[in-house]
Amino acid sequence: MFSAAVLARLEEDLDVRVVDHFDLIAGTSTGGIIALGLGLGMSSREILQFYTDHGPRIFRDRSRLRGVRHLLWAKYSAAPLRAALTEVLGERTFGERAKRLVITSYNIGTDDVYLFRTPHLPTLTRDWRERAVDVAVATSAAPTYLPGMSLDGARLVDGGVWANNPAMVALTEAVGPLGMPLDAVRVFSVGTTTDLPHRSRRLNRGGLLPWARDAVEVLMRAQSESATKQVRHFLSNDRVLRLNPTVPTGVLALDKVDADELIGRAGHESRTASPAFTRCFADHTAPAYVPCYPARKD
Fold first, then answer.
1. Beta partners for 117?
2. Tally of CA atoms within 13 A in the half-sphere of 134 that contains its CB
3. What is the rounded distance in angstroms from the CA atom of residue 270 to the CA atom of residue 8?
4. 38-41, long-range: CB within 8 Å, 24+ apart, which pairs?
5. Which tens digits make up the pLDDT trace of 133-172?
6. Which end of the chain, N or C, is less surrounded by CB atoms within 10 Å?
7. Judging by DSSP bridges, how do beta strands 149-151 and 112-117 pair with one another?
8. pLDDT tens, 195-251?
9. Residue 103 in 3-state DSSP?
10. Is residue 158 flagged as an active site residue?
């Protein structure tokens, strides 16, 4: 909701379509859903409305046994998420996108990263056939919160387990397969807010019990921060705009947000970032993306 609101306010304040200024969009988890919506041609305001309307329904399970069930099963069913995504994305395929996209997931069956990539290169001949809804469910299958997804035998979970911040994924795609020189790349990276919890000194001693509560959160934060710093190292600070404000600890959770709080913070961040966005990205209008669909064999 925060990420979509930042983009929506930027579009309204600057009277632009953010996607018009970018050649490649990468997304992880909820960012993957946003990337899919933008690639489909949705406005940022429409994507924000999706979160506002459907978020409470997706995380609506209030059964008394939910906490007990969560010990062995996902906290929520994937059915409400899939239904909400289907309402917006319909039956369109991943390849029906007007932008180059890279969406992250992880295959726990082979213990390997899994990338959904639009057919922006002749060698990318498979992912474009997948349903967009399936890609969205796969990238956002947050472990413990939502069940993993099976896709052609691949056991896929949220891409955040390895690319919580996909900025480095985007840079790698741009410089590697797409062959862009580093000095031609600029990156706009939007997070989902972060907090700074107190780290107990008990963690210094190690052990399973002291780290049981903090391990996942520490790892997710560490990989996000490292990705930002790596991108800045390659491109320099003046070609990277990162928005990911700090919020009070405990105010927000993945499945429980205060919409007014998030949208208010997004408005503040977008107001502050508008000059930097204009300076860094407004002078570039992305050429139309032409997919490299494989030739039909009749």
1. 102
2. 18
3. 9
4. 38/7, 38/99, 39/97, 39/98, 39/99, 39/101, 39/118, 40/89, 40/92, 40/96, 40/97, 40/98, 40/132, 41/98
5. 999 999 999 998 899 999 999 999 999 999 999 999 999 9
6. C
7. unpaired
8. 777 778 888 888 888 788 778 888 888 889 999 999 999 999 999 999 988 776 666
9. strand
10. yes
Assigned token pair, 278 = 């204009």
Instruction: Give 118's contacts (C-beta < 8 A, 6+ positions apart).
Output: 39, 94, 95, 97, 99, 100, 101, 102, 124, 127, 128, 291
pLDDT of residue 252: 66
Instruction: Tell me, yes or no, if 13 is annotated catalytic.
Output: no
Q: How far apart are CA 180 and CA 172, in angstroms?
A: 10
> By the 8 A CB rule, do 24 and 290 touch?
no
Alpha-carbon dihedral 231, 26, 271, 48, rounded to 10 degrees: -160
Which residue out of 29, 105, 189, 224 is catalytically annotated? 29
Look at residue 16 and tell me whether its pLDDT is greater than 60.
yes
**What pLDDT, in 10s, does the model give residues 71-81?**
777 888 899 99
Q: Which member of 43, 127, 140, 158 is catalytic?
A: 158
Q: What is the pLDDT of residue 21?
A: 97
The alpha carbon of 42 is separated from its chain's Cα centroid by a whole number of angstroms, namely 16
Amino acid symbol at 22: F
Distance CA 193, CA 86 (A): 27
The span from the first CA to the last CA of the chain, in angstroms, equals 45
In whole numbers, what is the pLDDT of the chain averaged over residues? 89
- Which two three-digit tokens encode residue 18? 């953010």
**CA distance linking residue 274 with residue 280, whole number of Å:** 10
